[in-house]
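User: Please predict the structure of the protein below. I'd like the answer in structure-token form so I can feed it into my own downstream comparison script.

Assistant: Understood. Taking the following sequence of 257 residues as input:
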Amino acid sequence: MTPSMAYLPGNLAFFLVLSIFPILTLIGVIAGSFSLDINSLVNLFDIALPSGVASVLASFVEGKAFDSNVGIFMIIGFFLASNGAHAIILASNNLYGFPNSDYVKRRIKAMIIIIIMILLFIFMLGFLAFGNHIVNLLLKQISDKNLVMIIYNTFIILKWPFALLVIFFNVKLIYTIAPDWKIMSKHTTRGAIFTTISWIVVIQIYSYWVTHFSNYNLFYGSLSNIVILMLITYIISYILVIGIAINVKTYEYKIED
């Protein structure tokens, strides 16, 4: 294992969690602009995250209007969060043996990658792990029972195929654009398949844990909620790094052929 493979998962996990706060601030600004119910957003966080995490994050979703302070906070937050994606780019170059490109280009690409990863993380928690609960919550607003059953059954049937396609496509995109050298998309397929399947397994274990072990924070309070969130993020990050290593081996094998 190279040094970059050892420290990259922890680096990436930290900055992914850090990116939650500017994202929630942006959601609060949008909600305030459209007069959306902030309590509904907090309830969704309660469903998708361990008990207590939503209360820690709720202060960032206040629905206040956009001002200079909010703008500066979001810019700084996204820039700091992109350090994790920037580390992925540098590690990819290192593993593939490619030279690093211009710093500005790398930072722009890092911003794109971190946005993709944030949206993927939210998708896996909100749609894959707790999609059934969220859909049930939304369907309670519909009085027609037959329509409710049709919508819910359709969601159950399409949930897994749709999730697999979304995760696979975005992971493959990250693996393809991360190195500062052109990598053919087909050379990232094995790593993307490994990462997609592994992420789904981990998210299902996480969902089961949160649902059936509600007293795991008995002694440590809200601190344990943050620890669990960091742990799941670290595992997801580590799987992503292993996927890069798989792609590097595939690329080297294809080049030798």
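That's the full token string. The chain has a mean pLDDT of 75.
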